[in-house]
Design a protein that fits this description.
Distance between the termini: 19 Å
Low-confidence stretches: 1-48, 332-348
CATH class: Alpha Beta
Number of strands: 15
Largest sheet: 11 strands, mixed
Number of helices: 7
Number of domains: 1
Radius of gyration: 19 Å
Mean pLDDT: 83
CATH architecture: 3-Layer(aba) Sandwich
Structural class: alpha/beta
Oligomer: single chain
Strand content: 25-35%
Length: 348
């Protein structure tokens, strides 16, 4: 018998009916992207206004700190009349916003779940998340400010729910997500980091917001126990242990209760009764390397399995994080998820 936090689940395959409710393994999500077109467009603050397209993936631009910045945007068709949620997703090193959307099958997912989707492009090889991967000539780029600017721009231009503005990222995009979470004045409601560590320095204590950290236990770029990782080009990052990154956030948020649960391939540690009734959740996925599990990218052309580990198809990351975000308790409630007692049974 174990105690786990109760989160409602939107989707579970029958074959995984024995999973703990605490582990949001929402399988069988969208794997075939919708047909989309791309339309370069300037956003309202550039002086060259083009209307926002609905049901089409569009590339838009905005100026921030005298630099032209770009982002991909998707607004689903037939949105409900109520203000929509906004999910902003950040790509990893060497990628871009469009590739991130493809990797996670995000456009089809946003269309099905009816949320607005944004995917900004970094100026260099990566966002300036504090590790130096952006490149020495771009270390002055304020990507924290840019992401806050982008959120404010979309909140002003579109009919969005400011209480459902979420930021998620993969790899160095996950590190960037955590860097934004350090800012006390950020307007995001919750954060999800997949396969990424925090590199930027931050305050010892912060007002808490929900944070989900997902790592694979077979990821050579993020060893479970930590250690030096050679990225080439004279860049070696001394990675912390996965649990250490999660524990640091729990301490920063003043969490008081720790709950552990294991079900099939998910090992979850959650910290609750944080400041403001928030939570920190760390999910370690068995057999997962440096991939967006369940996504469209199953291998990397230039990196072999010895560098990135194995792909995993039976954990649908995009659906898992959306299930987590869409079932968070209202921030204004000031309460943690209820605890229930569940007996774990083996999966069929």
């Amino acid at each position: 018998m174990i105690h786990v936090p109760l989160f409602p689940l939107s989707m579970l395959k029958p074959v995984l009916a024995g999973l703990l409710l605490a582990c949001t393994l929402a399988l069988g999500a969208c794997t075939t992207p919708l047909p989309v077109t791309t339309e370069p467009a300037a956003s309202a603050d550039t002086g060259s206004v083009q209307p926002y397209a609905v049901g089409k993936l569009q590339l838009r631009q905005t100026r921030f700190e005298d630099r032209q910045r770009s982002f991909w945007l998707y607004i689903p068709s037939d949105l409900p009349t109520a203000p929509a949620a906004l999910l902003t997703v950040l790509h990893g090193t060497g990628s871009n916003g469009e590739q991130m959307l493809y990797m996670g099958n995000f456009v089809a997912h946003a269309e099905a779940r009816k949320y607005v989707l944004a995917a900004p492009n970094a100026l260099g090889r990566a966002f300036n998340e504090g590790s130096g991967r952006i490149g020495a000539d771009l270390l002055d780029v304020d990507d924290v400010g840019f992401l806050l600017h982008l959120n404010q721009l979309l909140q002003a231009d579109l009919v969005l729910d400011p209480g459902k503005s979420y930021l998620a990222g993969f790899s160095s995009g996950g590190a960037m997500t955590q860097r934004v979470a350090l800012q006390t004045d950020n307007e995001y409601s919750a954060f999800v980091s997949v396969s990424g560590h925090l590199w930027a320095p931050g305050p010892a204590t912060l007002p808490a917001k929900p944070l989900l950290l997902i790592f694979g236990d077979s990821d050579p770029l993020n060893p479970v126990a930590g250690g030096p990782v050679n990225y080439g080009n004279n860049l070696v990052l001394d990675k912390p242990a996965q649990l250490a990154t999660a524990r640091a956030w729990a301490n920063r948020f003043g969490c008081s209760i720790r709950v552990e649960a294991t079900a099939t391939i998910v090992h979850q540690t959650g910290w609750y009764q944080c400041q403001g009734g928030s939570q920190v959740t760390y999910q370690q996925i068995e057999g997962l390397g440096h991939f967006w599990a369940g996504g469209a990218v199953t291998e990397y052309a230039s990196l072999g399995p010895e560098r990135v580990g194995p792909y995993l198809g039976n954990f649908i990351t995009t659906e898992v994080i959306w299930d987590y975000l869409s079932h968070l308790p209202p921030r204004s409630s000031g309460v943690s998820p209820p605890l229930i007692t569940i007996t774990r049974t083996p999966a069929d």
